[in-house]
């Protein structure tokens, strides 16, 4: 008996630990089974939208990845709007209207993000232009033709040989 | 006492770095070569001092000396020894000390590299390095002193952030810093060249091993960090375009460009000014990276240090080094004589194209990372630049870059023949096309980009193999068809040739790993013990949930058996949730089951009202190739590093040496 008691005691204790650990308010995780929509097509759209929306209180995570309660609220909101028949764009603009442009992980293409979006193309074009100009500037220097007087001088020297 | 001695050693290092900085200037004005020698000695001394300071801090952490603030904030008596040690650099003060330790380590290495670096260049390089050391030690002593005591000393420490209690953290920062800080040496070399107003192939040859070493470490550090984030953060991604990740990616891209441009400079004496600029940029971006991480200016997962005074100090350091070096560049670069000419279609030309795309990619990451900050400062608008932006802009720049890799290798120096190169690459292009189409047919209905990516990876792999084969086969009169001769020649090829091929093959492996993620699948369900969930080709069954006790945490573990579709069990994965009482924090531990290069990734979710457990599973095909490829790249770099011409060092004029010896009869 005495050998059994500590074990049951231990088991009861461990059950408690388990319960506490599992119910701890917590980095609950990204999308949860309870949130998933029944319609797989709709759920797929919800996931795609979630990946483009930022969790406002986290550091650089999409609401799809985030554990924060606010992200969960947003995920539910996205799904709610989809179930009410909104298009993807309508869901996004609904969320942007409520939380601002900050929520979009893919910045809009507008005047204030022009430089951002054009950077890759500009970098390649300006770089290519720079290389082309440098190459052009240097080539004539390398293959410069002799002037008429120099030609005459060379000819004179050759004749003397 | 040991702690105070450590603090004193740091102050001594400050003084020695000042000596290291001033001596070359003095030596330049005096004829006494002993002064130059002092520079090397000061560099060695500074390293010894910082090493002592670092050891003192480590001792305080290992012995749980809670009279030291830094230990109180980041340690705990119950913490396993490995995390007591890695906890030394798992915080702001300690990681800055590690930064400086590595900085002085590189300085000591340059001071010791007598054969490979000409004396004057070495002294000037060490001088610039001394300035960097001075500023950073000053930063530590004035704003981030790790040796501050607390009175009265608490009985117990506050423990390290549980997310950082992982073997990954023990290795990731030192590797990353070896890379970051390694670029300080190339920066110092560049600044020294600008000060001397002279740069040549000897310079390129002296700089190359340092660049290569820094690049190898940075590659490994980034790969390690990516893998750590993959299994620790619990949502299965391997790259998040987080500002801190970008901070390490930018110097890596610039360093990769630098590595390629120094090749041109060493072989052909061209691209000098550009190479110097890249050397400056690589380290400047490392500094920007340090600023981003250390000041917490862009909030992200890594910002465990937020203090405006530090931010301002680091910003001042940035302005000093970036502004200073670019001014020096603008002033002195016109003095550098331009070297060898080449046609647009040539090995050099393709390397220029490589640099163009790398720099454009780097600029994109730079602008994307800092744009939200700048926009908010200028207009007050708050926007987010997230992964969708980077994926949309970075990938289109990376693809042409990858396409030209084998081309560049096939073209001759000075003037290449495009048609001949294409003919030689015909095999690679053909096989890649067949592979891509075959994969497309096999996975018909799946994502379109994945087979394209696999084809691209195959093209890079075959291209790398062809690099070796065509070099071994020889050109012109040396050309042979005998397999024996080819094998013999292949073995005899310089190690740098093998290193290049290996590194490029590594890129191919990474590309295949990334592309294969297009076929990744995910399963999400609430399960009671005994219930199953299908993910990819596997069926996962939740067996039981059991508690476990770790050294400084409690864990609830879910045990999941993975079976294939026929019902054969292949293994068990354990995923858990750990509670750290010292920090009152709960962390999810993901479980991984590796099959070949693929993995099943399990992560524990919320608990339902009926006691069921939310389980998230991913099937990630070939995911390990992403990091293995990076390791192959690093191996390629390391192999190049052992090449004969790196070991032999720079040729020096015998006459010059005799003169130097004659001037110092005492030696």
From TrEMBL, chain B:
Source species taxonomy: Bacteria, Pseudomonadati, Pseudomonadota, Alphaproteobacteria, Hyphomicrobiales
Keywords tagged on the record: Cell inner membrane, Cell membrane, Cytochrome c-type biogenesis, Membrane, Transmembrane, Transmembrane helix
InterPro entries, alphabetically? CcmF_C (IPR032523), Cyt_c_assembly (IPR002541), Cyt_c_biogenesis (IPR003567), Cyt_c_biogenesis_CcmF (IPR003568)
List, alphabetically, the Pfam families matched: CcmF_C (PF16327), Cytochrom_C_asm (PF01578)
The job of this chain, per UniProt, is described as:
Required for the biogenesis of c-type cytochromes. Possible subunit of a heme lyase.
Main localization, broad class:
membrane
Q: Where is the Cytochrome c assembly protein domain?
A: 89-295
The record's subcellular location field reads: Cell inner membrane
Q: Does the keyword Zinc apply?
A: no
Family, according to the entry, reads as follows: Belongs to the CcmF/CycK/Ccl1/NrfE/CcsA family.
Q: Does the keyword Transmembrane helix apply?
A: yes
Output this protein's name: Cytochrome c-type biogenesis protein CcmF
Q: Where are the transmembrane segments?
A: 6-28, 40-62, 96-113, 125-142, 175-195, 207-229, 249-266, 273-292, 312-331, 352-374, 394-413, 425-444, 450-469, 497-520, 622-641
Q: Where is the Cytochrome c-type biogenesis protein CcmF C-terminal domain?
A: 315-644
Which superkingdom does the taxonomy of this entry point to? Bacteria
Q: How does it sit in the membrane?
A: Multi-pass membrane protein
